[in-house]
# Entry
Amino acid sequence: MNVQVGAESIKSEYVPCDLCGAVDHEVLYSKIDSVTNWTFNVVGCSCGMVFVNPMPDEQSIPLLYRQDYHFEKPLLDSLYKKMIEFLPPSNENSRLLDVGCGTGDFIKHAEQVGWDAEGVDLINWSQTYGGLKIRIGDLPCMDIPEESYDVVTAWAVLEHVRNPSLFFNKISTLMKKDGYFIFTVPNVAAPGIRHSCHEDVPRHLWLFTPGTVESYLDKNGMKIRSIFHDGKIYRSYPFGLLRYTWHQLIGRKEMNCSVYENRSVGLLQNRSIGVHFKRWITEVFENVPTCQIALDFLDLALGVIIANYSKIIRNYGVITVIATKE
Ligand SMILES: [Zn+2]
# Structure
């Protein structure tokens, strides 16, 4: 399967489940991607994993991203401060590896609080990393001495890689004994998330649950120390659920997300609603049919209510996991 993106072509292929190897999966929904203009299927495996299948091949992954993919700067600075709070205390020899480090800003924050911090990313996001220790390439193939790091972090990264199992395995070998692996991933076991079109498909290739995370860790000699369902670092809302539920009720099992997506929320992209409220409202009235706006706002309210309920029952749509190597 080929998709043309500018002059370059995206190729995709059917893949087995990365966790259990099963090849039979249930198609949950299909979604048109605004970057590639191609429709991707999201499937569910009996082991709990949810993923994009057919999946873009290794060479095509960088083509799925716009250069401005990351959140805007003021949002990021506050994010990094929250991430730092999850780290254990450091001493002068404490080494940290940030997987999927992007432009390296988290590494700078970690250095400021005493960590000897390094990063790795598949994509070179910045021509000038300003002296930061960053490797560009595919982590599982990298030649790095084993048991080198006290802490490995992967903030919203494992859902982006084609083979999470290779990353869990490599990260385990890089951690010192009793080292920490701290990471955030989407949780499709949270209410409404499994059928919400709000996931950033196909940048998000694999969606996890607390159970599948535990299986990955167990296979690689790690165990869960804590799982946080607080939405402190990243937030997740099951937008689109109102129209999806309505279609289920009237028996129209529509698979394409465009039928029940919340277009008003979609216009926000990665911007903060608080900072851009006025501009966003103007864009909503310019782009969304008036008859749909009320439904979008009802859906938005429903999504916010369900997301807050998810925190209370400790089953939120994005989880932060602290694991240790046994
Ligand atoms: Zn599976």
Notes: The mean pLDDT is 90. Residues 73-235+317-325 form a domain with the Rossmann fold fold (CATH 3.40.50.150). The longest helix spans residues 290-312.
